[in-house]
Amino acid sequence: MAGKAIRAATCIGTGAVALAVVLSGCSDSTDGTPVGSAPSGTEPDFPTTRPSRTTSAPPSAPPSSTTPIPPGAQALTPQDGYVYIETKSGLTRCQLTADAVGCEAQFENAPSIDGFPANGVNLTADGTVTWIVGNLGDIPTVPLDYRTYTALGWTIEASAAGTRFTNDGTGHGMLVRIEGVETY
Question: Signal peptide position in this chain (predicted)?
């Protein structure tokens, strides 16, 4: 019996040592320095399903804005405080809030930010302009035709020459084109 007990103790001891070795290799952290690649300035090329939006009639309740809609302008209905648009060419996408308009495009004459050409521009209602490198993501845009629209206190004039955004309260705005952005 003594031999069997010694063998059992040896097996248990060997198993405990093996278990200790395996467990000592487990850790919550990984040593090293993270390394990433710089953004390329282009979106990845893979198919996505983007929910579509239609330019539906505004709700029957009048909008809270006291700014009159320009004659012939089509009102764009916000979703959770945002309106997302895409130019007729599909080369520019923008998001509007009551406070700002941000547009994304591969601008030809954009400034560099941290060594990368800016692909976004943001204009606040008070006229502050900020260039950015970013991506609006998979937003549900309303495609614009060449005409006038209104949304969240902004008048949007879409034409072949570019898309003009003017804040109805301050008069500040910008003309967005692939060739560049003009602010006023």
Answer: 1-20
Range of the domain at 87: 74-183
**pTM, 2 dp:** 0.63
Two structure tokens written together for 8: 């059992």
- Backbone φ, ψ for residue 22 (5° rounding): -65, -45
The DSSP element (H or E) to which 3 belongs, if any, is helix 2-24
Query: Does residue 79 belong to any structural domain of this protein?
Result: yes
Instruction: Confirm whether 11 is domain-assigned.
Output: no
Tens of pLDDT, residues 106-153: 999 899 999 999 999 999 999 999 999 999 999 999 999 999 999 999
Largest CA distance in the chain: 103
* β-pair type (116-117, 74-75): unpaired
Asked whether residue 148 is domain-assigned, the answer is yes
Q: Is residue 134 part of a domain?
A: yes
